[in-house]
Amino acid sequence: MSPRPFVSLLLIFFLRAASADGRSTNIIHETCKKCAREDPNVSYKFCVASLESNPYSHCADLRGLGLISVKLLRHNVTRTRSYTEKLLKSEEMDPSVRACLEDCLELYSDAVPTLAEAIRAYKDERYEDTNINLSSVMNAPTTCEDGFSEKGAGSPLAKRNKDSFQLSAVALSIVTMLSRSSH
Ligand SMILES: *[C@@H]1O[C@H](CO)[C@@H](O)[C@H](O)[C@H]1NC(C)=O
Ligand SMILES: *[C@@H]1O[C@H](CO)[C@@H](O)[C@H](O)[C@H]1NC(C)=O
Ligand SMILES: *[C@@H]1O[C@H](CO)[C@@H](O)[C@H](O)[C@H]1NC(C)=O
């Protein structure tokens, strides 16, 4: 028996895998390029790195990428909430830092149910509601970080606040694109 049919089958398999991969890389890059161009709060590099971190991005369309970005944000917010809680339990801390962290805990705690509403609205294609809920989530890292700056205290949540802000911006930007194309 000739090995040729097998070899061509393998070749077809690899070509298809390669083109599927090329397509998904493209939609991530194209989407992030558009987001960064339209929204100064979005960093192209951050956008690509976060979306690519999710294995499902590789076969997603714009709507799928939007949901992935909101879920990445939920993961971030949930983890920052529990991290803040843990920090507050460690006893030694400047009282002004403690007060700021308590505010942040409240902000991040409120953001969790708001994100659940954002996801529900997104799944129903109610993009305006999604936008309202995401904008309110985006305020959490900003307000949290402002608290530390006002007291002239170093923020132990700086990196996390920046990430949550960036992810909110990516999600908001994708939702804006979708709401435009659905009209
Ligand atoms: C960018 O972030 C700032 C600060 O939070 C906000 O006021 C502004 O509305 C954001 N821009 C967009 C296009 O979302
Ligand atoms: C938040 O999301 C960013 C981008 O996806 C990621 O790099 C970072 O590790 C996440 N942080 C947490 C605490 O989950
Ligand atoms: C989410 O948005 C909807 C629609 O604007 C609003 O009625 C609701 O109060 C928001 N939810 C939260 C938790 O902010």
TrEMBL record:
One of its GO terms (cellular component) is extracellular region. The keyword rRNA-binding does not apply. CDD domains: PMEI-Pla_a_1_like. It comes from the Eukaryota. Keywords: Disulfide bond, Signal. Residues 23-174 form the Pectinesterase inhibitor domain. Gene3D superfamilies: Invertase/pectin methylesterase inhibitor family protein. Residues 1-20 form the signal peptide. Belongs to the PMEI family. This is Pectinesterase inhibitor domain-containing protein.
